[in-house]
Design a protein that fits this description.
By secondary structure, the chain is of the alpha/beta class. It has two domains: 124 residues, Rossmann fold (3-Layer(aba) Sandwich), CATH 3.40.50; 104 residues, Thrombin, subunit H (Beta Barrel), CATH 2.40.10.220. The chain has six helices and twelve strands. The strands form two sheets. It has a six-stranded antiparallel barrel. The protein has a five-stranded parallel beta sheet with strand order 2-1-3-4-5, sandwiched between helices. Strand 1, helix 1 and strand 2 form a beta-alpha-beta unit. The longest helix is centred in the middle third of the chain and has 18 residues. The C terminus is likely disordered.
């Protein structure tokens, strides 16, 4: 994560991210988008890739705790780390933010460099808890009554990136089946589309694909996949994490 640009979405009245601050963040490889309502933030989350969300707990135009809860209760966004920030040194507020689902609570003012290091540490921690591997395999995909085969580009124990140019609406239910090396039978799971990814300035080398989150596995597929991912990821480090 330290060598990649961080895309930050900030719910704020700009006290945390003034235009000058954002210029400083850009120099550090961080792009900041500021929103001032939950609806505006939700539109951004649906249409733009976001690495981390920062919620200013002191921003009176929003109910910060409800914003955190809404993000963490949404299946499409709940894996995005959320940082709660406040100028108040308040144990109750900190507990409330963490109970609402925030991954990190920080007190402002905080030096920009130190804040970014905290965020990078949080993102690296998230990567370590959701190991991803590349896999050269074909997946049998069924959407409704239509079946087809797509390549598997990227895999974790909780989801898969399927190599395809087809853009399918997030939330669409999908059945996917694919083989893993050494497996006697295919991994089969029901899932849902969470996003469509395509090459961009940050990752020009990657192919277009559909991010699928697994919902329900067939038989022992879940335990077999978890063992395979854990073993393979430990042996092969330095991959891209973008689902």
């Amino acid at each position: 994560m330290s060598n990649q640009s961080i895309r930050m979405l900030s719910f704020d009245d700009k006290t945390l991210t003034t235009d000058l601050d954002r210029a400083g963040y850009r120099k550090m490889g961080v792009s900041v988008k500021v929103v001032q309502s939950f609806d505006e933030g939700a539109r951004s989350l649906r249409t733009e890739e976001t690495d981390v969300v920062v919620v200013n707990m002191d921003f009176s135009r929003i109910d910060a705790l409800q914003v955190i809860k809404a993000i963490k209760s949404n299946n499409e966004w709940n894996e995005i780390p959320v940082v709660a920030a406040s100028v108040r040194s308040n144990v109750r507020l900190q507990k409330a933010a963490l109970d609402a689902g925030a991954d990190l609570y920080v007190e402002q003012p905080l030096p920009r460099q130190y804040f970014i290091e905290k965020v990078k540490g949080l993102l690296d921690q998230k990567v370590r808890t959701n190991k991803r591997i590349e896999l050269e395999s074909k997946a049998s995909v069924t959407i409704g009554s239509k079946s087809q085969k797509w390549g598997v580009a990227d895999l974790s124990a909780t989801g898969v990136l399927l190599a395809t140019d087809q853009e399918i609406e997030p939330g669409t239910k999908i059945n996917v089946s694919f083989a893993i090396p050494g497996g006697k039978s295919a991994i089969e799971a029901d899932g849902e589309v969470v996003r469509f990814v395509k090459p961009n300035k940050q990752h020009p080398e990657r192919a277009s694909g559909l991010g699928i989150r697994f919902i329900k596995f067939k038989g022992d597929s879940k335990s077999r996949l978890e063992r395979f991912v854990a073993k393979t990821a430990d042996e092969d480090q330095g991959l891209l994490y973008y689902l």
